[in-house]
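queue> pop job 88
queue> type: inverse folding (structure -> sequence)
queue> payload:
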């Protein structure tokens, strides 16, 4: 008897699930493990947002099936957020769709947009669900290498002409995971121009667009001229408002793509719990002071960790976006070897770069989304135990 399809059998275990297994084994062996591998904010959801959730829980009508496209309050709040932050006009009726977290929407977009055998362009290194979604949909993945000398931006001119002519969808992600790279609107103009020339839809993953530092403000790709003709942008409240477990996000932009995605979603899910949508709307429309407060915490953590890494010979510097550090491994180590050495010597989990794609080899990713005292402990362990690695 067969218990899974060939398609599923070809999908490797999700990398963070594997790291969690290793973490559990070490903890059972008595090791005090500090997990800097996954980007799950330790800071609490701001109180005014949780208060709104509790308030909305008092209304029986909020416990019914939600609209497939999301409640109007939420969609209007997303449109208002885009107007306030980016001066982008959105029609909440046709250009905004609620998601059960942006990951769900990104994964569902692929079978919405492509048929088996069609090409999708994706960054390498990049968020693993991009390539997994392509595999599950029976598509062909063409990776776009992100190199440090190019500011971890894809070089569109190096995409073979026959690939560009056949591609139906392109993923982009800035501020970037795992690279923490940031771009300006000029990059998005180039991307939109390329996409329109080759009739490719761009899916821009903007999950970290509000987690920024040093005076940098991440642009929206929809600020590029003519973007709505070829672009949808995915957003999430997970990182901005420390709402990862709430599972609430959105997609905005091209109304035809959004309409198609809504058809797929209406046949596979029934939408997010209405009180969560109402609380998310409150988060987007209310005071944004909480964003600066959390970003200030991440900035201080980043300053301390980059100094610690420099002290053990790792060449890195603070980034302008995300709460990740993407750094080269010391000479003489592969990404996996260095990550294993750090874990064995210090009990600290970091993510080897190759887990994000072939072009991630030679790097590692470190997350700052742990309590400051635990990060300080990780720093102290690394300073004490890892200097020998670079000697």
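queue> result:
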């Amino acid at each position: 008897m067969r218990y899974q399809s060939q398609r599923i059998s070809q999908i490797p275990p999700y990398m963070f699930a594997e790291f969690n297994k290793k973490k559990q084994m070490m903890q059972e062996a008595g090791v005090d493990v500090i997990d800097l591998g996954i980007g799950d904010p330790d800071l609490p959801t701001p109180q005014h947002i949780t208060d709104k959730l509790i308030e909305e829980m008092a209304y029986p009508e909020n416990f019914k099936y939600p609209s497939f496209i999301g409640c109007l309050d939420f969609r209007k709040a997303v449109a208002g957020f885009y107007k306030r932050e980016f001066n982008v006009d959105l029609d909440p009726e046709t250009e905004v769709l609620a998601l059960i977290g942006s990951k769900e929407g990104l994964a569902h977009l692929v079978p919405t947009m492509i048929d088996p055998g069609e090409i999708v362009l994706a960054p390498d290194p990049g968020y693993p669900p991009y390539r997994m979604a392509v595999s599950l949909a029976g598509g062909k993945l063409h990776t776009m290498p992100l190199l440090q000398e190019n500011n971890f931006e894809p070089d569109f001119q190096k995409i073979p002409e026959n690939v560009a002519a056949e591609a139906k969808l392109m993923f982009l992600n800035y501020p970037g995971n795992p690279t923490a790279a940031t771009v300006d609107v000029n990059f998005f103009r180039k991307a939109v121009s390329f996409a329109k020339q080759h009739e490719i839809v761009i899916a821009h993953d903007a999950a970290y667009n509000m987690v920024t530092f040093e005076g940098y403000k991440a642009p929206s790709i929809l600020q590029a001229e003519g973007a709505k003709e070829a672009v949808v942008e995915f957003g999430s409240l997970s990182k901005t408002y420390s709402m990862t477990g709430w599972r609430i996000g959105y997609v905005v932009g091209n109304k035809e793509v959004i309409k198609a995605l809504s058809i797929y979603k209406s046949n596979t899910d029934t939408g997010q719990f209405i009180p969560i949508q109402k609380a998310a709307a409150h988060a987007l429309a209310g005071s944004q002071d909480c964003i600066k407060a959390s970003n200030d915490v991440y900035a201080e953590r980043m300053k301390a960790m980059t100094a610690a890494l420099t002290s053990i010979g790792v060449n890195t510097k603070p980034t302008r976006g995300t709460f990740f550090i993407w750094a080269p491994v010391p000479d003489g180590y592969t990404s996996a070897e260095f990550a294993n050495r750090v874990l064995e010597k210090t009990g600290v989990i970091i993510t080897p770069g190759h887990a994000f794609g072939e072009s991630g080899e030679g790097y590692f990713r470190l997350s700052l989304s742990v309590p400051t005292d635990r990060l300080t402990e990780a720093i102290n362990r690394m300073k004490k135990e890892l200097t020998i690695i670079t000697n």
